[in-house]
Structures are given as structure tokens and as C-alpha cells.
Write a structure and sequence with these properties.
2 helices, alpha+beta, about 150 residues
Length: about 150
């Protein structure tokens, strides 16, 4: 009879362990499924927000002392919701960007400039809802390494 009782206890424990394992596995599968659905939703929403570059113009003027003035306009068309636009202005080591100024067409964004090791990053914070079209204008003075060392700026 003791052998029968012991084998029943083992069977009951195995059954409980199996039920517990099934519960843990089902919760793990449910959690993984929820995470995958959230990831898919995030990818779908970011994929639906697109933009295109419609036009870009650059005017470069080099004066007699070699200082270079750059004016650029970049026009974008947006499809979907966007938070901001970025444009990086980079120079070669030793060169320098000075007097950076800019604006967005029709005050469609709030433009700010961040200094980065290679030059500047322009960041335009877009309103909600995102405008269908926007033009970014910026102006800068570029100094070449030789001009900086000669103090010509």
C-alpha cells in the first residue's frame, strides 16, 4: 500500500509540475506575442510616415580673401506625421563654419542649431499636424584651414 501511495504522490506532483509548466509557457508565449505585435505596430506606423526631397539649391560665393559664403535651400514634401527634420553641415578637420543662420518657410518649423565635432546639425521641430511641404533655408560662412591659421576671418 505504501508503494501505491508513493507512486500516487509522484503522479500528483508530476501533474502539478506539468500544469505549472504549461501556465508559465502560455504566459511566456502570450508575452512574446504581445511584444511582437507592439513591434509590428511601431514599424508599420514609422513606415507609413514618408518624406521626399523636392528641391535643393546651393549658392556659393567666394570673396577676394577666400572666405566662402554658402546659402542653401532644401524643400521637402511630407506624407504622414513627422516630429522633426535634420540636416548636418560638416567640414574637413581644421576648417570651420561660422555665422550659421536659418529659417523654415512660412514659419513651418522651429529651427535650432547644435554644434557637433564636424560642424553643425540643424534641427527643425515640426508642428502637429505635419505640413505637407516645407523649405529649409540656411546661410553660413565657411573658413578653410589656411584662412584660420592666417587670421583671415
Amino acid at each position: 500500500m505504501e508503494l501505491f501511495d508513493a507512486s500516487c504522490k509522484v503522479a500528483i506532483e508530476a501533474s502539478l509540475n506539468s500544469a505549472l509548466l504549461k501556465t508559465i509557457l502560455s504566459k511566456t508565449i502570450l508575452l512574446k506575442t504581445i511584444l511582437l505585435l507592439l513591434l509590428a505596430l511601431c514599424l508599420a506606423s514609422s513606415a507609413s510616415a514618408k518624406y521626399s526631397l523636392e528641391k535643393a539649391e546651393t549658392n556659393i560665393i567666394v570673396n577676394a580673401s577666400g572666405i566662402t559664403h554658402v546659402e542653401e535651400l532644401v524643400s521637402y514634401a511630407f506624407d504622414g506625421d513627422h516630429i522633426d527634420i535634420h540636416r548636418e553641415l560638416k567640414v574637413l578637420p581644421g576648417d570651420s563654419i561660422r555665422n550659421v543662420k536659418g529659417r523654415c518657410s512660412e514659419k513651418a518649423c522651429k529651427l535650432r542649431f547644435e554644434s557637433i565635432p564636424e560642424g553643425y546639425r540643424l534641427i527643425g521641430k515640426l508642428p502637429d499636424p505635419t505640413p505637407e511641404k516645407l523649405t529649409l533655408f540656411y546661410f553660413l560662412r565657411l573658413l578653410w584651414c589656411s584662412q584660420i591659421s592666417q587670421g583671415r576671418f
